[in-house]
Amino acid sequence: MDATMFSKLRRRIRAMSIRLARLIMKNADTNEDGHIDKREAQKIAFEQEGISADDVNEMVMSVDDNNDGELNAPEFADFERIIRSRAIDTSKKALKVVDRDGGGTVTMDEAKFIAFDHYGFDEKILGIFFAQADENEDGQLD
């Protein structure tokens, strides 16, 4: 892929992320003003990843290109990208805790530890979640 094709690909991906942001905004924009304000952003970030209000304020300021205190669709797409990035970082840290044997994957037995102790899931519910996440059906989450 040459630079021109890569540029086109990047633009298409960006356009898709903005369209997805607009869809999410329809549900999250509780005051229906067409933007996501800080309160709405805090609710989204907390529900998705448990991110604190102070962190959300910093995140909003970092993507609010026109400095109006609200997020339009392109800005919200960037905000969601930051949330996804934090989710990956959090998951990497959690994997180190849950992966008791250090194998780089999570077995059902290792998942039971976190599911029972931290979330109160029983083995039946965990089994359903685990099966959905185990894409290659090898009994491990990697």
TrEMBL record:
InterPro entries linked: EF-hand-dom_pair, EF_hand_dom
Domain spans labelled EF-hand: 20-48, 55-83, 90-118
Molecular function via GO: calcium ion binding
Top-rank taxon: Eukaryota
SMART domains: EFh
Pfam families from the UniProt entry: EF-hand_5
Protein name as annotated: Calmodulin
The organism's taxonomic lineage, starting at the top: Eukaryota, Metazoa, Ecdysozoa, Nematoda, Chromadorea
